[in-house]
Amino acid sequence: MSNEFEYDVLYLGSGHGTFNGAIPLASKGFKIGVIEDGLIGGTCPNRGCNAKILLDMITTTQHDVKELQGSGLAGIPEINWKDNVEHKDEVIQLLPEAIGNMMTNAGIDLIYGKGKLVDDHSIKVGNKEYSADKIVIATGAHYRKLDISGNELTHDGTDFLSLKNQPERMTVIGSGYIALEFANIAAASGTKVTVLMHHDVALRKFYQPFVKVVLNKLAELDVKFVTNVNPQSIEKIDDDLIVKTNQGDFKADWVLNATGRPANVEGIGLDEVGVKYNHQGIEVNDHLQTNIPSIYAAGDVLDKKVGKLTPTAIFESEYLTDLFSGVTDKSIDYPAVPSAVFTTPRIAQVGISVDEDETNSNKYTIKDVDLATDWFRMTKNENEGTSKLIYDNHGVLVGATEVSDQAEDSISTILPAIEYQLTPKQIKHMISLFPTIGSESWSKL
Ligand SMILES: Cc1cc2nc3c(=O)[nH]c(=O)nc-3n(C[C@H](O)[C@H](O)[C@H](O)COP(=O)(O)OP(=O)(O)OC[C@H]3O[C@@H](n4cnc5c(N)ncnc54)[C@H](O)[C@@H]3O)c2cc1C
Ligand SMILES: NC(=O)c1ccc[n+]([C@@H]2O[C@H](COP(=O)([O-])OP(=O)(O)OC[C@H]3O[C@@H](n4cnc5c(N)ncnc54)[C@H](O)[C@@H]3O)[C@@H](O)[C@H]2O)c1
């Protein structure tokens, strides 16, 4: 389409922020190049969501079997760490090639190597420069390094997901998504886990009484939580890794640093070309356009208010496809973005939070739902769980949060009611599949 440039659109990075939009754009006849210096598909398939949920599936299956002891099942299966990791590898190792094939079949050129912006329309990879009418930066994020001596003795989430030998004792630094999800997998597998919390709050963005439920369940798996910890250094003495902190020393044979994932803004030529960014990521307008008109950004590398999650990266990538192909010229309009913490039990939430309700108490009404009495959950002996449904003054559902073993599916089911502001009459005018968790969740609205 462009005669002036080699490509219509060049993407830097090949994760969900790229391929979900690049493939349909190429199918429309746009000439696309995708530059990648790691595994095709980026974080989510290879070392994020997909990899994590595979390991988690074994722990949740074991949990379900435990709950059903004496109700038709006898004997608790043991988790074999090595087999679990190998099974995960078998499933996910197919993904880079599969995603790469989807791109090349759509006519996309895959360019392997580390790319760096040269000017408003070009990226250099090795000695070669590629030019494009538009550039999309979708370089994702990386694990934060701790600025303390001995940091090199710690491991990150990617290491955890590929760890072949189960640690006997693991210290986790941080108490966000990755810290708690991985603490859950390790503790369910029999590792003694200590979580060092920076403050006295875990999973800050989630409803704290529900977070307490999760922490208590983790404590039942013998996970120890230590609050207000400042790691000061890490030392190796014989077989012990010792995290020295303001609260004393913590010994383990493996240390997971799960202290966040800053955006990949360094070393990609942003300063040289003058693209604005800050410590949260690349700054864009409501069309995902940077201050340089030909350069856009999508995914985790963005400074954005919505969660840095796979579905938001996909949404942004697909929005850019519509923008570039003239389907829309409107601003990006995010729907309600759900998020879940994949511990046992899960916490999931979407829309207006309970905290927002508490600061605007005359605006919303909260309905508490005790899920322990929900008959469908009794099929799995799930005897704990609560959800909070938040309604506005017109009786329209505007938010929900749930802690339960099936919270992610429950919240997923009710998304349309929130996004499309369904009235109670419209909600009633819906027939769900029965018996399913979806029908149970819908019936509570
Ligand atoms: C352990 C873990 C678990 C997660 N679990 C979930 C979950 O359950 N649900 C969820 O919604 N989200 C989850 N996430 C977040 C999700 O993975 C990300 O939001 C998503 O992958 C972001 O996609 P992206 O395309 O923006 O970035 P990435 O997928 O990170 O892609 C960026 C790509 O750019 C490449 N790159 C970077 N710099 C260059 C360069 N200079 N030249 C060439 N290539 C470059 C990188 O190699 C990478 O492949 C998880 C993340 C992690 C780490
Ligand atoms: N289920 C999911 O959707 C899911 C799962 C994993 C990751 N993710 C994505 O990946 C991102 C990164 O996850 P994460 O768990 O690394 O980040 P996070 O922001 O959720 O948690 C970071 C944790 O590190 C702590 N911390 C920060 N600096 C510290 C320091 N110097 N010392 C000790 N502790 C410190 C914070 O207090 C917090 O508890 C998430 O924000 C999310 O976007 C999503």
Topology (elements, then pairings):
Layout: E1 7-12, H1 16-27, E2 32-36, H2 43-47, H3 49-67, H4 81-92, H5 95-105, E3 109-112, E4 115-119, E5 122-125, E6 128-137, H6 157-161, E7 169-173, H7 177-188, E8 192-196, H8 208-220, E9 224-226, E10 231-237, E11 240-245, E12 248-252, E13 254-257, H9 270-273, E14 277-278, E15 281-282, E16 295-297, H10 310-324, E17 339-341, E18 346-351, H11 354-359, E19 364-370, H12 375-378, E20 386-392, E21 397-404, H13 407-419, H14 424-428, H15 437-443
Parallel strand pairs: 1-2, 1-6, 2-3, 6-16, 7-8, 7-13, 8-9
Antiparallel strand pairs: 4-5, 5-6, 10-11, 11-12, 14-15, 17-18, 18-21, 19-20, 20-21
Helix pairs in contact: 1-10, 3-4, 3-7, 13-15
Bound molecules: flavin-adenine dinucleotide and nicotinamide-adenine-dinucleotide (NAD).
Residues 146, 173-179, 181, 198, 231, 258-261, 307-309, 339-342 line the site of nicotinamide-adenine-dinucleotide.
Pfam families: Pyr_redox_2, Pyr_redox_dim
InterPro entries: FAD/NAD-bd_sf, FAD/NAD-binding_dom, FAD/NAD-linked_Rdtase_dimer_sf, Pyr_nuc-diS_OxRdtase, Pyr_nucl-diS_OxRdtase_dimer
Cofactor: FAD
